[in-house]
Design brief:
Chain B: InterPro entries: Ribosomal_uS7 (IPR000235), Ribosomal_uS7_dom (IPR023798), Ribosomal_uS7_dom_sf (IPR036823). Chain B: One of its GO terms (biological process) is translation. Chain B: Belongs to the universal ribosomal protein uS7 family. Chain B: Pfam families: Ribosomal_S7. The complex is a heterodimer. By secondary structure, chain A is mainly α. Chain A contains 4 helices and no strands. The longest helix of chain A is centred in the C-terminal third of the chain and has 27 residues. Chain B has a two-stranded antiparallel ribbon. In chain B, 52% of the residues lie in helices and 7% in strands. The relative contact order of chain B is 0.10. Chain B is globular, with a radius of gyration of 22 Å. Chain B folds into 2 domains: 64 residues, no CATH class; 149 residues, Ribosomal protein S7/S5 (Ribosomal Protein S7), CATH 1.10.455.10. Classes of the chains: A mainly alpha, B mainly alpha. At the A-B interface, helix 2 and helix 3 of A face helix 9 of B.
Chain lengths: 120, 218
């Protein structure tokens, strides 16, 4: 007797034997004990508003700087402040003092995780 | 902040970074100038038992020392021939002095306005050529944008002196470098000339590309 193909289709395909396709762990299936510090570097965009004001002033005065000394000073002060803050932040990160709390930078996190690693 | 607190701060903040300096971090910068030594006498007495870095070979305590001049000398130097660079710069200064003296003698009435000090003129020129911003190429979605970014004071000085020197080196073979450099310095000190125009062009380009300013992220 001929069995119609539609019957086979309704039953579905038979599962593959697991021994034919052994599981390969290509990447380790657990989290690493470190985090990368990429996210902590933060955005580099600073002083956009001051820059806009400076551009407006420069355009109005046909790029003569002496008429825009106020804007220039503001802009440079802002940038200096930003650089100082960045340097300070880098210093605190490099100091690597571990403190309790949830707001940790990557170095502190790495220290914690080295102390309490994932069980293998 | 006094010297002592700075030193204590430095020595306690030990970090795992290896520095490229010959000296450990707790070494203090030397002060070569006699008048500065006398000025900071009280602070310097605290440094009796603290190691100090050796003074640089070229540092000196003469009235002729000028940081801008020294920097420019370093930029003029090619293949380590700093003796030649020094003669070139002093020749340029001499030419500046001569032209300015001539102008002073020709000037009618206001003779105080003509500056004949070449070093003062050099400083003025560098100040006039300093850019405020700079453009960097940032690739976004396959398109390279010229994004205006602020620059540090140090870099702005560097760029000003580099541009001055580039303008001076772009000359005919018969014209000597001191001649051209003297002209460029004089022009820039009076707020005109090619170098100041170059700075203005850069500012114009920054202004034209201000819409991309928020693309800075890397």
């Amino acid at each position: 007797m001929r069995v119609p193909g539609a019957l086979f289709a309704a039953r579905g395909r038979a599962p593959q034997s697991e021994s034919d396709v052994p599981f390969q762990e290509i990447l380790p299936l657990r989290l690493k004990n470190t985090v990368s510090g990429k996210a902590d570097s933060g955005s580099d965009v600073a002083c956009l508003q001051e820059m806009g004001q400076l551009f407006a002033c420069l355009k109005d005065n046909e790029f003569t700087e002496k008429y825009c000394s106020k804007e220039i000073n503001q802009f440079q002060r802002c940038f200096k402040c930003y650089m100082d803050r960045k340097l300070e932040a880098k210093k605190t990160v490099n100091q690597g003092i571990v403190q309790p709390g949830s707001n940790l930078n990557y170095k502190q996190l790495n220290k914690y995780m080295r102390r309490y690693p994932n069980p293998v | 902040m006094s010297f002592l607190t700075r030193i204590v701060g430095k020595s306690t903040s030990f970090s795992g970074i290896r520095l490229m300096s010959v000296y450990p971090q707790h070494y203090v910068e030397p002060i070569v100038q006699k008048d500065k030594q006398i000025e900071q006498k009280d602070e310097l007495t605290k440094l009796h038992h603290i190691p100090i870095k050796a003074a640089l070979n070229k540092s000196s305590d003469t009235v002729f020392h000028d940081d801008t001049k020294e920097k420019l000398l370093n930029y003029i130097t090619k293949k380590g021939n700093s003796a030649l660079a020094r003669t070139l710069l002093s020749k340029a200064f001499e030419l500046i002095k001569r032209t300015q003296t001539e102008r002073l003698n020709l000037a009618k009435g206001d003779k105080d306005k003509v500056i004949t000090n070449a070093e003062v003129l050099l400083k003025q020129a560098v100040e006039n050529c300093r850019p405020l911003l700079q453009v960097t190429a940032i690739k976004r979605g396959g398109v390279t944008y010229q994004v205006p970014v602020p620059i540090t004071t140090k870099r702005s000085y560097f760029l000003a002196m580099k541009w001055l020197l580039e303008a001076a080196r772009e000359k005919e073979r018969k014209v000597s470098l001191p001649e051209k450099l003297a002209w460029e310095i004089l022009d820039a000190a009076h707020g005109q000339g090619r170098v100041v125009k170059r700075k203005d062009d850069l500012h114009r380009q920054c202004e034209a590309n201000r819409a991309y300013a928020h693309y800075r992220w890397s």
